[in-house]
Design brief:
- The protein has about 150 residues and is of the alpha/beta class.
- The chain has a single domain, classed as Collagenase (Catalytic Domain) (3-Layer(aba) Sandwich).
- The protein is about 50% helix and about 15% strand.
- The chain contains 6 helices and 4 strands.
- The chain has helices at about 15-30, 45-55, 75-80, 90-95, 100-115, 125-140; strands spanning about 1-5, 40-45, 65-70, 80-85.
- It has a 4-stranded mixed sheet.
- Helix 1 (about 15-30) packs parallel to helix 5, helix 4 (about 90-95) packs across helix 5 and helix 5 (about 100-115) packs across helix 6 (about 125-140).
- The chain starts with a strand and ends in an 8-residue tail after the last helix.
């Protein structure tokens, strides 16, 4: 299991957050029975995530996290599940508004992004509830409070 973190010029993921992201990735791989896989996470700013959101989702606004599933033929060889973009500016603001720790919120967005890559979404309540429950279980294992309370 390999997690590649690509930092933004104006924001570097500190070692404690990097370790927590790696731990979260290992937990989700164990929980979902994924082996020998990798994922890329890029930390971006609001302008970059807005551009990605506009280009790939036709939404002209920033957001907290975007996930891109690897549908390339190389997936068979690389076992790369996909890419996740997280806006540190958006998540920082959101964490403050929701009275959450920044690092905890980044980890939650990362886990949320992985579940999107694995095919979960919010299109129906049943799948949204299942995804939220999976996230809550993993976050609890990381000593992070339920973000949906």
């Amino acid at each position: 299991m390999t997690l590649s973190i690509i930092n933004h010029n104006n924001f570097k993921v500190a070692k404690p957050l990097s370790e927590k992201l790696n731990e979260a990735f290992k937990l989700i791989c164990n929980e979902e029975e994924l082996s020998n896989c990798s994922i890329n996470i890029k930390i971006v700013n609001n302008n970059e995530i807005k551009d990605l959101n506009r280009k790939f989702r036709n939404k002209d606004k920033p957001t907290n996290v975007l996930s891109f599933t690897n549908e390339d033929v190389s997936k068979q060889i690389t076992n790369n599940l996909g890419d996740i973009a997280i806006s540190y500016e958006y998540v920082k603001c959101e964490a403050k508004e929701q009275d959450k720790k920044f690092d905890d919120h980044v980890v939650h967005m990362f886990i949320h992004g992985i579940y999107h890559i694995l095919g979960f979404d919010h299109k129906d309540d049943l799948m949204a509830d299942e995804m939220e429950n999976k996230e809550i279980i993993l976050l609890k294992k990381l000593n992070i409070n339920n973000p949906y309370n």
